[in-house]
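ok so i was messing around last nite and threw this chain in just to see what happens. nothing serious, just curious
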Amino acid sequence: MSTVSNPLSTDDVAAIERTFESASRMITTGDWAGWAALYAEDAILHPPHGPAVHGRRALLEWGHAFPPVDEVRFFDVRLFGGGDVVYATSAYSLRLKGLPPDTGKQLAVIRRKPEGWTVLAVSFNSDLPLPGPASAR
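result:
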């Protein structure tokens, strides 16, 4: 699942991969409190087509306002870095209730803390084109 430069331990890689798996499960089940808890207290999220979301409390509010999710899956997870900071890229597939499927990509920054790995920042964007008049494309 992962490609790692500046190798991390097998346990570190497994823990970070579990973070992606947990995020997928929590988003799909609407466990926004659990999802927000994966992030540092001062984390930042850069979602597509919207303003940056600053802090765990704002992340929780953003999650509660997110449309219902049928399924989200992260794949092609690649880890870079080592020590206490890792940069991760991945692709995702997302199915929101009543909407066409979406695919996209993300970049995450993850830091080791005494209690484990925590997400510092995520920026993600869709591969789907923005809706609009055909003449604007």
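not much to say yet. Residues 10-126 form a domain with the Nuclear Transport Factor 2; Chain: A, fold (CATH 3.10.450.50).
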